[in-house]
Design brief:
By secondary structure, the protein is an alpha+beta fold. The chain has two domains: 153 residues, Thiol Ester Dehydrase, Chain A (Roll); 135 residues, Thiol Ester Dehydrase, Chain A. Helix content is 22%, strand content 30%. The protein is built from nine helices and eleven strands. Strands 1, 2, 3, 4, 5, 6, 7, 8, 9, 10 and 11 form an eleven-stranded antiparallel sheet that branches. Strand 4 and strand 5 form a beta hairpin. The radius of gyration is 20 Å and the shape is globular.
Length: 360
């Protein structure tokens, strides 16, 4: 008997309230953390330094939250978006508890809502995904929206049905160990910007770019277990991709852009308090060079030697931010809903809130 099993879902396969326990289960080892760090060069010290993490009261250097986000997105592709036309939005991304090397993570997603588009051939699916470790601790939670084709997916098989409880209420935004007064920095050097150095309205044009290599984005996509063929299958893309070639996994694009911004904005941060209102206005291909810019939207004194900084971060393809801003480009208004002034170079945009040390 010939079988051709398919994964993911079309619009009519989604039922609001349904929970999908994704089959991927992955132990995160030091090798994975080293590869992620080598690819993204993030300056936030808590995620890079065991000494700094332990000084803050954490058991060890934690798994980078953006690796957890990429794993959660990728695990959910199997049940949610392997047939999707596009990933539309990131919302309410949180990292409530630290995850450590040696932890085993898995994920499940709940369907929050479905909405057909006016043409009738597609629909928008809204899900919430949670990533937990082997103890059941919630280490990453997020919502996202995907555009999927109408109808039902033929030749799709359901896996065994398991109980997949999801967190009730509002997950915290910071691990309990980081709620009190922060200890003094343990490193001798420091990046330039502390909480006092940010002012609402400030714009940072991050100067260094990052060219996406084909081998790297393919390896990282499979490392995270993302099975969507638009990222890994050239023959599929020649027929089905809007670019006629493989498109770089958006979670990686987001991570590269946030890393590009990190020396200027996150070098004295201690934790990501959340990401929200994120989108990919255009796709990225191997060979594109990414640039970043950030605008300070808000700042709040949290006491204990730290405060929150909220940034609107944008990633641009093949053009740095400075010449675009000098030409009057509207970089920081979301592209969705713009009637004029669209920025063709924009590849990703998101709001990021960081817990940042004071200078003292």
């Amino acid at each position: 008997m010939l079988h051709a099993i398919r994964y993911g879902r079309n619009y009519d396969d989604f039922l609001p309230g349904a929970i999908y326990a994704h089959p991927w289960e992955l132990t995160i080892d030091e090798g994975m953390l080293a590869l992620f760090a080598a690819s993204f060069q993030d300056a936030l010290p808590t995620y890079a330094s065991r000494r700094t993490a332990r000084s803050l009261g954490l058991r060890d250097r934690p798994v980078h939250p953006l690796l957890l986000l990429n794993l959660g997105l990728s695990f959910s592709v199997h049940d949610v978006s392997e047939q999707a036309v596009a990933h539309l939005a990131y919302m309410d991304v949180r990292f409530p508890n630290p995850c450590y090397p040696g932890d085993t993570v898995e994920a499940c997603s709940r369907v929050i809502g479905v909405k057909p588009v006016s043409t009738g051939d597609k629909g928008v699916v809204h899900v919430r995904t949670e990533v937990v470790n082997q103890e059941g601790d919630l280490v990453c939670s997020f919502e996202r929206k995907a555009l999927v084709r109408a109808g039902r997916l033929p030749e799709r098989r359901e896996g065994p049905v398991h109980d997949a409880p999801m967190a009730d209420g509002d997950p915290p935004r910071v691990p309990a160990a980081l709620l009190g007064a922060l200890p003094k920095r343990v490193s001798r050097g420091a990046f330039a910007t502390f909480w006092e150095d940010f002012e609402v309205g400030d714009v940072f044009c991050h100067e260094v770019g990052r060219t996406v290599s084909e081998a790297e984005h393919m390896q990282l996509t499979t490392l995270c277990r993302n099975s969507h063929p638009i990222h890994v299958d050239e023959r599929y893309c020649q027929k089905n991709s809007f670019t006629k070639t493989r498109v770089v996994f958006g979670g990686l694009v987001l991570s590269w852009v946030l890393a590009l911004s990190s020396r200027d904005t996150a070098g004295n941060a201690v934790w990501d308090l959340g990401l929200d209102e994120g989108a990919h206005p255009s796709g990225v291909l191997a060979g594109d060079t990414l640039y970043a810019a950030s605008k300070v939207l808000a700042k709040e004194d949290r006491g204990g030697g730290a405060g929150a900084i909220t940034l609107r971060v944008v990633g641009l393809k093949n053009t740095p931010a400075r010449p675009l801003l000098e030409r009057g480009a509207d970089l920081f208004t979301p592209e969705l809903g713009k009637t004029e002034g669209r920025v063709a170079e924009k590849a990703v945009e998101i709001t990021r809130t960081l817990l940042v040390r004071r200078r003292a």
